[in-house]
Amino acid sequence: MKLAIIGGSGALDLFGSKKKLAMTTPFGAPSDRPCEVEFGPHRGWFLARHGNPHRVAPHRVNYRANIHALKALGADSILAINAVGAINADIDTGELVIPDQIIDYTSGRAHTFSDGGSAPLRHIDFTWPYAGPLRQLLVQSAADAGVAARDGACHGVVQGPRLETAAEIRRLKADGCDLVGMTAMPEAALAREAGLDYASLCIVANPAAGVGEGAISEEDIRSVLARSMARVRKLVVKLVESLDPTDPRIT
Ligand code: HPA
Question: Stretch 180-191: mean pLDDT, rounded?
Fold first, then answer.
């Protein structure tokens, strides 16, 4: 497995030593220069989804360039880290969740590589958007690391960047969404189109609109994400440690 990590809000400083790799793609520039990161004897890649400093809004992320760049570097598996709000009242702020389903409410994003020109038209199977071995490895690594992570949830992906109305969240809940976020799509589908295994680790930053008391503050979100990063790191380190140590490519 050759692993790349796409980190979202709050995940910029997850990894220490970083060699930045300048690159472009047929779809334009990725959000940031991907970093080569070292996990002990292993090497992999990290990409800041919103750039560094954090500046690219969810609907402006060049998801195609990001996926293309990581594949071009040699990644075959992508671990996405996503900040989300909790719709399901059983899910607490600060929890880590490994979703198994997606509903896509986004619009106007460049969401496919099958987009004319010489690109082949593909109708990928997406019945289980997180179907590959990386998701299982993530669940197992959480258990091995002693980091609590909920296995299974439906992630509703909205356009943003504003947060939702209470009525919108009621609608998402009626649709079966447990979580709401802004960046899981089209990233997950593009990874599938590109033939990459893809799993998501969601950090619950807040109760969704109307689920908790009062307004949702960006400052509270930032502080929950910052406090959660040590657990995310512990889980990711355990995951990487479980990869074949005799394979120095990383991964
Ligand atoms: N809604 C959408 N995206 C989010 C939220 C939310 O409440 N929290 C963190 N990302």
Answer: 98
Does residue 96 carry a pLDDT above 80? yes
* 96 close to ligand 1 (CB < 6 Angstrom): no
Per-residue pLDDT of 186-209, as tens digits, reads 999 999 999 999 999 999 999 999
Q: Is 9 in the pocket of ligand 1 (CB under 6 A)?
A: no
**pTM for the complete prediction?**
0.95
Q: Is 179 in the pocket of ligand 1 (CB under 6 A)?
A: no
| Span 47-71, pLDDT tens digits | 999 998 889 999 999 999 999 999 9
Instruction: Tell how strand 42-48 and strand 3-7 pair up.
Output: parallel
Per-residue pLDDT at 75 exceeds 50: yes
Domain ranges in the chain?
3-114+124-241
Task: Report how far ligand 1's centroid is from the alpha carbon of 208 (Å).
Answer: 7
Q: Is 3-114+124-241 a CATH 3.40.50.1580 domain?
A: yes
